[in-house]
Design goal:
Length: 151
Amino acid sequence: MSSEKKSPTEKAATLIRELEMRELPDAEKYEKCETIARLAPQEVVDLIDDPQVKEGVTWLKKAHIDIPSIAKWRKAFAQTIQLLFKEVGGIDRVKKWHELEEVCDKISEEEMKNIDKNLRDAITWVQYIHDNSPERRLEIIRRINNGIDCF
């Protein structure tokens, strides 16, 4: 049976077998390749030594119609920085936040027991804010990449 005559389910089953996808992490590996290809400015792609990988990344970028330049990425990065600082009210507030992080790191579990629940919750948020740093970085990268379309 030719691939044109296969149903979407049959095509999916064939590709899943060919790609040896047995668990979600298997799918994640492939999607990471697509994601990094889409994120890479052309100037980065030009630095790839392996000609097959370079060709593959170039193909993926064209397939996704997303080929940013470093100049556009830098402009979008700078714009995103300005927007994030504006959203919180400026650098003075960011400096206070940094001070709050330092202070909260010094509060012990024992002290936390004697604090009002609402304050305790807020302090806990600050103490554990870095637990989801990878997700936060990804969100920022997405914002930068969305800003590339503006330039």
